Amino acid sequence: MRVLIAAGGTGGHIFPGLAIAFYLKENIPDVRVLWVGGNRDTDSKVLSSHGLQFTSISMQSWPRKFSAKQIGFAWNLTLSFFQIFFVLIRFRPHVVVGMGSYHSFPTVILSYFLGIKSLICEQNVNLSLTNRFLARFASRIAISFPQTKKFLPSSEIDKIYLMGNPIRPEILKASKEKALRTLGLKQGTFTLFFLGGSQGAHTLNRVGIETINLLKKEKRLKNIQVIFITGRKDLEWVRECLKLTGVSSLVREYLSQIQYAYAAADLVICRSGATTLAEITGRGLPAILIPYPYATDCHQMENARYLEAQGAAYTISEKDLAAKKLMASILKLLRNRDLLKKMGRKSKQLGRPRATEIIVSLIQDLGKN
């Protein structure tokens, strides 16, 4: 079977696609996977490092404000249709999988007119602009949140499958004991995990450091240790600040074995991108969510509100984010371990750990028809 996956731009689209690609290659004999993405170096480096066959197209995101960029967009869109046409003719996929980024747009539309089955995946509560356009052209639509159905036309209801967001299997397998040992952290110590996303988040880094300093003044650092994923720009600054507090910590720009950080964590303070939420609910972790305020259509806020409504997380908007407010939420959970455990159970109930397996089964069914 030949499967083409179209994704790029951000980790929120790339990592679920990688989970699908790995599962296909590990569990289906003689499968061939081709990845179609953007021409950014980051896309090609990530994918080539995982040994995937990769080709790029010129597609770029739609400029939402009227400007001269729309002329460039129109040209690249036209060029992308020609590029993907030849890719489809050469590779002859049985199934095309669009992960919701703009690279999916020409790929799924041309697949429709060439008679190739397609699946589009929506990771967030709100539909991406690309998936709104593609819903009528796709053979199947996989969604991660039940509310997403209301954003889809009733004519497409028979195509919709609630499956969850694919995550890598190692996220679920790591044990707490091995994780703490691997990361050089203490056993039996409450572990806070600050995660700003694949690129880091300066605001979260800054408020996180201020919060740790307030916890020090409250003399609450004795039984706390910290994992901090900072992004490249803030790495040394965060590392030096945490040294001054005296808190036991692991500080990294990026952690490729992120499964160990999740396994070690007792509480996660993070953005509310769809992949992050799939990973923390897959592990059943309580969280304090700070949605990225500039995400398209405020989709991170919608994601966070869903978890909060289900009792699995607290949400603090970035405009309301302050060290005292964050510390108060952390202390509330430190002092009330029953509440912390309840949030963890609610998180676990929301997790869909078999999402990758089920989506691959759907891909196989599409490939047979």
From TrEMBL:
Positions with a binding annotation for UDP-N-acetyl-alpha-D-glucosamine: 10-12, 124, 168, 198, 300
Pathway given in the UniProt record: Cell wall biogenesis; peptidoglycan biosynthesis
Reactions this protein catalyses: di-trans,octa-cis-undecaprenyl diphospho-N-acetyl-alpha-D-muramoyl-L-alanyl-D-glutamyl-meso-2,6-diaminopimeloyl-D-alanyl-D-alanine + UDP-N-acetyl-alpha-D-glucosamine = di-trans,octa-cis-undecaprenyl diphospho-[N-acetyl-alpha-D-glucosaminyl-(1->4)]-N-acetyl-alpha-D-muramoyl-L-alanyl-D-glutamyl-meso-2,6-diaminopimeloyl-D-alanyl-D-alanine + UDP + H(+)
Family matches, as InterPro entries: GlcNAc_MurG, Glyco_trans_28_C, GlycoTrans_28_N
Subcellular location: Cell membrane
CDD domains reported for this sequence: GT28_MurG
Functional note: Cell wall formation. Catalyzes the transfer of a GlcNAc subunit on undecaprenyl-pyrophosphoryl-MurNAc-pentapeptide (lipid intermediate I) to form undecaprenyl-pyrophosphoryl-MurNAc-(pentapeptide)GlcNAc (lipid intermediate II).
Family membership: Belongs to the glycosyltransferase 28 family. MurG subfamily.
Protein name per the record: UDP-N-acetylglucosamine--N-acetylmuramyl-(pentapeptide) pyrophosphoryl-undecaprenol N-acetylglucosamine transferase
Organism: Aerophobetes bacterium
